[in-house]
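Input sequence (213 aa), recorded before submission:
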Amino acid sequence: MVKRVRQVPQAQRAKAARDATQESRLAAGVRAALQWPRVLGGRGVAMVAGAVIVAVAVAVTGYFLSRTDTKRQVPDTRARHYKDVDACLLTGKDGITAGTTAAEVWQGMQDASLKTHARVSYVPVTGDQSAANARPYLNGLLQRSCDVVVATGKPEVTAATQTAPQYQKVDFVLVADAGADSTSAKNITVTRVGDGLRAEVAGVVEREVEARG
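Predicted structure, token format:
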């Protein structure tokens, strides 16, 4: 009986040799990794770990800084200085909504503020649009020590007209329609609604502010 010997192709033998070499290298790498803590010792491991943590922290910080807007707003060192004079506007429920008389009056007050450095503010009367309801809002402005009170809107003008005689040290500017009644009170100035209202209000507020020094 003839014994048959299985022939192994040369290509298969070469592949088996490469696989054995790779396994040998992998085993050597695993052994080196297992021996690494022993070689470095506890202190060495701690130092390497610390270095890794620092590197990660620097990378993360750099990432977020790169996403931050580099064009940050630089504070204006030329901050505007205001006079200790307040001009306050009392309006109807619509406030200074664009297209309203109050909006034009407010623009005039802002113009006056740019020239005189007086502080300007406004308060709308909410709820019932009547002189009786407007009066508490007006009193609030007077308690805030407003030096110049500008009123626009019929209820607001009426409330200011009735209150002005009690506050002779406060200057009142009333923005009224052409048919509104005038007043002889010394601390009241009446401006009429119409063309040039913004400039007129600005001029009146400027004069009142400058008169206070």
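Checked by second reader. The two ends are 133 Å apart (CA to CA).
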